[in-house]
Amino acid sequence: MKKNLNLPNALTFLRILLIPAVYITYFQLPERRWIALILYLTASFTDFLDGYLARKWNQITSFGKLFDPLADKLIVLTVLYCLAETNYAPWWVFFLVLGKEALMVLGSLFMLGKKVVVKSNIYGKTATCLFIAAIAMVFPWHNIAALFTIGHVLLYIALAASLVSMGIYAYQAVKIRPNA
């Protein structure tokens, strides 16, 4: 238990706490949605920071392995839900990401049962960066039409990169799957 008490895990826990804060701020303070964006960007930064620190300080834990990717999925889904609910992003993007993430969780659980961990890949990391940029541009903190348009294009590219990443994860999982 004691080895789970470290800064990378504290950052993951902070990201989990920021999820409802983003949602509540987005809907309760519509005239100040930029605050929700700052909370989202802070959560996104902690995603990069906790992983970096965990590897650098050799503080990779079971808690981090489970909750870091879960927090990542939930924060993106929360923001996509907020944006879709207020017509800043299409619902089909939210539902496609939700379905993809559900499949990833089920696949991860299956592989974990086989004692296999599929490592993250560059496509997933690229998709995450693209989602962050796209969401920042699509987020209703400005009135610049070109920025919204670029944000939507990036959102679709991020979605495509995310689906490619899922395909690669699936391929790796099948390729390295131990005999049942």
Automatic annotation (TrEMBL):
InterPro entries linked to this entry: CDP-alcohol_PTase-I, CDP-OH_P_trans, CDP-OH_PTrfase_TM_dom, CDP_ALCOHOL_P_TRANSF_CS, Phosphatidylglycerol_P_synth
Membrane topology: Multi-pass membrane protein
GO terms, molecular function: CDP-diacylglycerol-glycerol-3-phosphate 3-phosphatidyltransferase activity
EC number(s) given by UniProt: 2.7.8.5
Coiled coil: none
Keywords of this entry: Lipid biosynthesis, Lipid metabolism, Membrane, Phospholipid biosynthesis, Phospholipid metabolism, Transferase, Transmembrane, Transmembrane helix
GO cellular component: membrane
Pathway: Phospholipid metabolism; phosphatidylglycerol biosynthesis; phosphatidylglycerol from CDP-diacylglycerol: step 1/2
GO biological process: glycerophospholipid biosynthetic process
Catalytic reaction(s) noted: a CDP-1,2-diacyl-sn-glycerol + sn-glycerol 3-phosphate = a 1,2-diacyl-sn-glycero-3-phospho-(1'-sn-glycero-3'-phosphate) + CMP + H(+)
Keyword Transmembrane helix in record: yes
Localization annotation: Membrane
Entry keyword Protein biosynthesis: no
Similarity annotation: Belongs to the CDP-alcohol phosphatidyltransferase class-I family.
Function: This protein catalyzes the committed step to the synthesis of the acidic phospholipids.
Protein name in UniProt: CDP-diacylglycerol--glycerol-3-phosphate 3-phosphatidyltransferase
Natural source organism: Candidatus Alectryocaccomicrobium excrementavium
Lineage of origin: Bacteria, Bacillati, Bacillota, Clostridia, Candidatus Alectryocaccomicrobium
Gene: pgsA
